[in-house]
Amino acid sequence: MTGCSPSSIPDEPEGAYVEIPEQSVDGEALSAEPILRLDTPAGATRASALVTLAGEITPRLYARALDASGPGAWQPMRVTWREDGMLVAVADLDRVASEVELRVEGEVTFLTWSAVIPEPVRERPDVGAARLGLSAEIAALGVIPREDWGARATRCSDNNASKYRIAVHHTVTAAMGDPASNLRGIQSYHMDGRGWCDVGYHFLVSLDGRVWEGRPVHLLGAHVGGHNTGNIGVSFMGCFHPTSDCTSFPPQVPPDGMIAGAAGVIAGLAEIYAIPRDATSIKGHRDHSGSTTACPGDHLHARLNDLRSGMAGGP
Fold first, then answer.
1. Architecture of the domain defined by 22-116
2. CB contact set of 116 (below 8 Å; sequence gap of 6+)
3. Looking at domain 129-309, does it have CATH number 3.20.20.120?
4. Which of 48, 227, 260, 265 is the most buried (most CB within 10 A)?
5. 26 three-class SS
6. Are residues 156 and 218 in contact, defined by beta-carbon separation less than 8 angstroms?
């Protein structure tokens, strides 16, 4: 898969590994085949989609569960968030699914969807975006805090006390446009669609090289199934793999400025948390054992040495 498919249970024990099946398709492929199908993790009861719109008309989306007895009823997907040509849509299925189908009526530019086991609702205080605040050390790296992009309040409570590694991802979403709006879409997809307590990544990098605070770094992330403990998730907004999945989201190659901005922050995080800047401690999502994803895409993966070195040039 081109995209990053984290675990269906963000705070699963280190030995567990349940990767979310996820599919990304462009509008041309959807026009040819408007019904998509995915295998699901055991116990899946929800389908969700992050959609880049082709125009002002909202497409109609439907999802249905399939099991040994056959297909269930088509469930209309409800829009939970819409902004700047993007939307998030969610459907709770009428049964536990072994497979899920998605039907699209109308035009879209791009769609990413998944079937998940929603995270159980816990009694957690809503911790406001502003009240948490960046530590002085991380703020000094130039990271843009959550309140500046309009983050929803986090509901996460599981701490990630020991940080000893960094995982690099790409979001397989738009790189162009307003990064703050794109980030709000990713957070809504993770919270509304997957039922998570927040966006899964700790930091996100926009095309211009700015680095944005995602899930507060002291909280356990949801970005590499079975490998979230002690792992800081850094995700590049965009799609950086040489396949048709990424053609809807130019550029397919991350620009030097994007690499430079991320490299500076990664170097700073490595210093703060005493993380070795080597291939064992700073690596791509797909380099973790058990991963079946192409994330962070070939073109970004080729720049990992630059990210480790803290420089935008070659190794």
1. Sandwich (2.60)
2. 8, 20, 41, 44, 46, 47, 48, 193, 194, 195
3. no
4. 48
5. strand
6. no
* Bridge partners (DSSP) listed for residue 80: none
Looking up tokens 């899946």 gives 44
Tens digits of pLDDT across the chain (315 residues)? 455 665 544 444 443 345 677 888 888 888 888 999 998 888 899 999 999 999 888 999 999 999 999 999 999 999 999 998 999 999 999 999 999 999 999 999 999 999 998 876 555 555 444 345 788 999 999 999 999 999 999 999 899 889 999 999 999 888 888 999 999 999 999 999 988 999 999 999 999 999 999 999 999 999 998 899 999 999 999 999 998 677 778 899 999 999 999 999 999 999 999 999 999 999 999 999 988 889 999 999 999 999 999 864 433
Q: How far apart are the C-alpha atoms of 248 and 239, rounded to whole Å? A: 9
pTM to 2 decimal places: 0.89
- 218, 275 Cβ separation under 8 angstroms: no
